[in-house]
């Protein structure tokens, strides 16, 4: 039994120990996964809500673990961040996504998620410049998606990092907009090109609730007033899609349009189109 305020023995918790062991073993596996090509990217299309055309894709990493099967990013991105592996992993994701975009041979945009640690460790702008040169990806077609946690550390250093990335000519997206505490302040401070409306807002659309609709409509207007394109995440049905289209939201993503797909199937979807 445990007692509050106790020493080492009192705080020992076998369940926590198991969780730690699991994390450590996953961390070791992840190191090898990078070398053994166990990571793959899936691609989810971003669709122009006015025309139904595929404008580009978002690259989402998956881990094909030899014994655990497909491991979703939320189960290992945190581990990659705390071990510093996110830096080589993030570089690999960038390069692979750019290679694929160039291979498709169309003027698509490719969106890549960038985590805080990746942003703050090392010189992301230099890495991005290298990857663009290596792959021949035009800078203007790459979009880096960052959540508020990146922008939260509102230091001058982070602002200059953002400016450094912008100087390369890449696009920047504010991911999961509306989920943090002070999203609004970032609109003024950071020169972002794209605003991604978080899925939690889209979830509640299309059910005829006037307040939910007003909220999303206001976010779309706000984005436009700040010169940003708006992308709605997590569209799961027709009603949500037509509501967003009616609000003038520029782009949409979600299972209703397409799940994230392996490269080959994403390529096939490019030929076939989505049911927008
Ligand atoms: P995110 O950037 O917000 O990505 C959207 C997530 O929502 C993806 O989950 C996607 O599969 C899922 N999604 C898309 N459409 C729908 C829908 O209609 N309904 C529902 N319920 N979900 C939908 P996924 O692939 O599991 O990724 C989770 C998170 O992991 C991402 O959230 C992103 O923050 C992170 N992540 C994924 N790939 C990378 C990566 O390469 N690098 C970094 N740093 N983070 C990544
Ligand atoms: Ca994202
Ligand atoms: Ca999201
Ligand atoms: Ca998210």
Automatic annotation (TrEMBL):
What keywords appear on the UniProt entry?
A: Membrane, Transmembrane, Transmembrane helix
* Source organism, top-level taxon: Bacteria
Q: Where would I find the EAL domain in this sequence?
A: 23-274
Q: What is this protein called?
A: PAS domain S-box-containing protein/diguanylate cyclase (GGDEF)-like protein
Full-protein positions shown: 555 to 830 of 833
Please tell me whether the keyword Transmembrane helix is annotated for this protein: yes
């Amino acid at each position: 039994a445990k007692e509050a305020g106790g020493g080492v023995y009192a705080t020992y918790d076998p369940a926590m120990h198991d969780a730690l062991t699991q994390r450590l073993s996953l961390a070791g596996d992840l190191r090898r996964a990078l070398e053994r090509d166990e990571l793959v990217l899936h691609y989810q299309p971003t669709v122009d809500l006015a025309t139904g055309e595929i404008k580009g894709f978002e690259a989402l990493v998956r881990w094909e673990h030899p014994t655990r099967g497909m491991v979703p990013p939320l189960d290992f991105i945190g581990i990659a961040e705390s071990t510093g592996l996110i830096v080589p992993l993030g570089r690999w994701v960038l390069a692979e996504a750019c290679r694929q975009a160039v291979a498709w041979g169309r003027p698509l945009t490719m969106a890549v998620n960038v985590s805080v640690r990746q942003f703050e460790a090392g010189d992301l702008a230099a890495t991005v410049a290298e990857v663009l040169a290596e792959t021949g990806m035009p800078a203007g077609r790459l979009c880096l998606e960052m959540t508020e946690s990146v922008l939260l550390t509102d230091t001058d250093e982070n602002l200059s990092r953002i400016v450094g990335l912008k100087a390369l000519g890449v696009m920047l997206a504010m991911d999961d907009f509306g989920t943090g505490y002070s999203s609004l302040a970032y609109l003024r401070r950071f020169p972002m090109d794209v605003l991604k409306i978080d899925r939690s807002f889209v979830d509640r659309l299309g059910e005829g609730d006037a307040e939910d609709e007003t909220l999303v409509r206001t976010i779309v207007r706000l984005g436009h007033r700040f010169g940003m394109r708006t992308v709605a995440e997590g569209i799961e049905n027709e009603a949500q899609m037509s509501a967003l289209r009616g609000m003038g939201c520029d782009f949409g993503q979600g299972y209703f349009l397409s799940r994230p797909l392996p490269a080959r199937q994403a390529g096939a979807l490019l030929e076939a189109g989505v049911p927008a």
